[in-house]
Amino acid sequence: MQTLQEKASEWSGVDHEDAFAIDQTNLYQKLGLQTFINLSTDFYTRVYEDEEEWFRSIFADSKKEDAIQNQYEFFVQRMGGPPLFSQRRGHPALIGRHRPFDVTHKAAERWLHHMQQALDNATDIDQDSKTRMLNFFRHTAYFLVAGNDLKNQSQGAPPCKHAAIKTAPE
Ligand code: HEM
């Protein structure tokens, strides 16, 4: 059976090595805290103003400022900076934290669309860092889609005949 990581590679088109090229350099040291704050602010401004209501509504229960902080603290921590996210929120456990949301292929593409635009717009990030980040984001997005699929299989699968309970005739 394919692991979630393997599914993520297949669906995203990003192999494992490219996805984790963020670990071959310290992007936090290179870019600094403010750059990550700027990126997440730009990204979530696009998300919260998305003309696609179905996507915007996925974020309806979160305050924009909180979503921004959660995201940049995770990015900082994952890309070589201090563990800001874990200090405040605990273990990232990304699949578990996305459990309440419908993370479909379509949602992943929309998320990536906004992140691509935010990266294109970022004048404080060099091209090499942008490529590493986007590959990581793409792979992670599809890792979450794979996790979402698993959730749907274990919760929403229709009862199968093989496991039906037969009541004894009275
Ligand atoms: C694939 C499409 C995705 C969807 C639909 C999605 C949706 C969401 C939503 C609705 C939230 C709640 C906002 C908040 O209160 O913080 C969230 C949080 C978060 N997401 Fe995603 N996300 C996606 C992809 C990603 C990716 C690719 C990453 C990482 C690279 C990521 C990292 C996070 C983090 C760190 C949080 C904060 C969790 C917390 O603090 O509880 N997400 N996401």
TrEMBL record:
Q: Does the keyword Lipoprotein belong to this entry?
A: no
One example GO MF annotation: oxygen binding
Provide the alphabetized UniProt keywords.
Answer: Heme, Iron, Metal-binding, Oxygen transport, Transport
Q: Which Pfam families match?
A: Bac_globin
Entry similarity comment: Belongs to the truncated hemoglobin family. Group II subfamily.
Q: What is this protein called?
A: Hemoglobin 3
